[in-house]
Every structure is written in C-alpha cells, then in structure tokens.
Q: What sequence folds into this?
C-alpha cells in the first residue's frame, strides 16, 4: 500500500484509509470481535491510515479503534480524529442515540469550536483511544459555526501543530464551498471532502480542488460511493444516494457508468475508488469498514487497475465533467514515478 504525504507536513497516509464510523455501530450493531477483525484485516492489507471521531457512536468508535491498534507499532500508522462535538452527560436519555448510532444515549453531543472546547475534545479523544497522540485533527462539520471554527478552533490547532503535538490539521464536511474557505483563509493543511468529488458529483472542481491546488494543500476523499449507489457493480432502484433514496435519473446515470466500466474490464466500485485520484491534490480515499470481509474487498478494489481510457470515454459520453483532469501521476516516497492507479 503506497503512501502519500500531506503537503508541507511530515504526515504520510496510505492511499486507502479505514473509516471507523461504522464500527461505532452506525445504523446497526457491529459486534466487538467483528470490529477488531476489521481493523486486523485492513492492517494485513496494508492500510495504515485510520479515521475516527467522538461523534461516531458517542465515543465507541474511538474506544474500539484504540483497542484494536494498541499493540501495533505506533510509528507505523496514522490516526485522525475530530473536534467540534464535545460528549457531555445527557440529562434526558431515552435509551438509544438519536443520530444514527445504535448505542446508549447516556452522553450527548454539544457543539463547541472554542479554544477550550478543542483542547478538551483532544484530551478526551486521547483518553478514549488510549493513544499518545493524534496525527491529524479535523474540525468536524463546522457548517453553522464558521466564525468560531475559523477564528478560535483552527488557530489553537495550528499552535498544537507548530508545537509538534499534532502532525496536520484541517476540516471535514459534506460541502465543498466552506472547505475551500478553510484552505484559502486558515492554517489548514488538509480537508476531508465527503461525497463532492465522485463519479456522480464533481462539484468540488468549482471550489475546494482549485483552492487546494492553488495553495499547495491536500484533500482526503470520503463518501466516494455516495451512500451506496456506486458500491455495487450493477446499481438498482432502491439504493441510497447521499443518505436518501436515489432519484431514478441518478440510478440510470450510475448504470450507464457501470456499463462503460464493464467495457473497459473493470467495475463501478473499483472506478469509484480510483476516480478521486484523477485530481493531483487528492492523496487518499477513506472507506467505511464494518467487518473483515469489507476491509479485504476495499483493498482488492483499490488494487485493481483502472484504464485511462475509461475516463476518456466517460468524458466523451457526458457521464463525467469534461474538466475532470487526466489521471495524475504521483511520486512514491522512494522517488519512483508511477501512475497513481497502476497498482
């Protein structure tokens, strides 16, 4: 599994990342042994970048990820977590979390992008994971909190980075416009872009990707399956797109892309993972993982060769934007030049 460096930092991440939201019991219970096996399978496949957050399962994801990594050599992997949602006692619990995670709601989330809130959140995350440090810290969904996030949270993260406490800092969101502002107007090194640079949505070409290129910063792509519509070889009605039922026109477009993939000897999910690397600022694709089979499948899909001619045909047929860049070439840490998808 090849590494890519977050520009202007010492932090390197594998091209494929492990998204730990699912092992926080997202939508349904994931048994603890299955969560541990998922991390082990990803590790065996070469994944060394793991992303979590307090939000995921009200801390369950952080606890499980930390436990699964505890006996691994700390210098061999990178962990990111997030700030902006403090976990505080819930004075009116109803039994189960109301934000999609199947966990008890003895805690609740409290928005806080203040300096003290950021410091407290990092301390709490270190306690839950049992780790000695977080390599990357993102502001988590600051959509309605731009001023405090930009003027209080990001400066304290920059201080911690400059002191060597954190390796890299940034923000993670489902929208791209505000992420572009973080890249242009703050000390962010990297952004986590969810769902806005995929085979079905290239809106990030209008804002965050040009900003990253202009300012020499990096992008981690998540949500590349757009909630599932791109996750299967043959899309069908009833599948999800951005957390809702996919509209018929998008199902038809996904199916058309799948047919072009088949003609080029590849599959829709393999192309969905490869696609974000078409932009040179994208250094990683992180996928949610529930169990070991999914971890192995993700690695296998990432490792498939996706022909350059596929992107040419998709542009020609109007299935992706004409301004999608030609597949970039990245440089390995040993200096060897290679196609970013010729694995």
A:
């Amino acid at each position: 599994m090849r590494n890519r460096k977050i520009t202007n930092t010492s932090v390197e991440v594998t091209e494929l990342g492990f998204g730990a939201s699912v092992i926080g019991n997202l939508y349904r219970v994931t048994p603890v042994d299955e969560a541990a096996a998922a991390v082990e399978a990803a590790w065996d496949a070469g994944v060394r970048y793991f992303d979590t957050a307090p939000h995921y399962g009200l801390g369950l994801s952080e606890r499980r990820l930390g436990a699964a990594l505890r006996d691994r050599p700390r210098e061999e992997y990178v962990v990111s977590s997030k700030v902006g949602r403090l976990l505080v006692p819930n004075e009116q619990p109803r039994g189960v979390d109301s934000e999609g995670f199947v966990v008890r709601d003895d805690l609740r989330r409290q928005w806080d992008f203040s300096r003290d809130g950021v410091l407290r959140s990092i301390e709490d995350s270190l306690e839950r994971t049992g780790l000695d440090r977080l390599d990357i810290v993102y502001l988590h969904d600051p959509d309605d909190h731009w001023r405090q996030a930009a003027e209080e949270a990001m400066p304290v993260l920059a201080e911690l980075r400059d002191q060597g406490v954190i390796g890299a800092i940034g923000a993670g969101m489902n929208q791209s416009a505000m992420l572009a502002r973080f890249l242009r107007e703050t000390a962010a090194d990297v952004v986590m872009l969810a769902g806005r640079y995929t085979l079905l949505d290239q809106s990030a070409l209008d804002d965050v990707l040009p900003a990253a290129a202009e300012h020499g910063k990096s992008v981690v792509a998540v949500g590349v399956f757009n909630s599932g519509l791109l996750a299967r070889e043959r899309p069908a009605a009833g599948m999800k797109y951005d957390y809702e039922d996919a509209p018929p026109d998008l199902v038809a477009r996904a199916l058309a892309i799948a047919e072009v993939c088949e003609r080029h000897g590849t599959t829709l999910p393999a192309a969905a993972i490869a696609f974000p690397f078409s932009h040179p600022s994208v250094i990683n694709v992180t996928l949610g993982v529930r169990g070991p089979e999914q971890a192995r499948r993700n690695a296998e899909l990432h490792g498939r060769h996706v022909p350059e001619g596929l992107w040419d045909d998709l542009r020609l047929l109007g299935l992706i934007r004409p301004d999608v860049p030609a597949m970039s070439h990245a440089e390995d840490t040993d200096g060897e030049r290679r196609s970013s998808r010729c694995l």
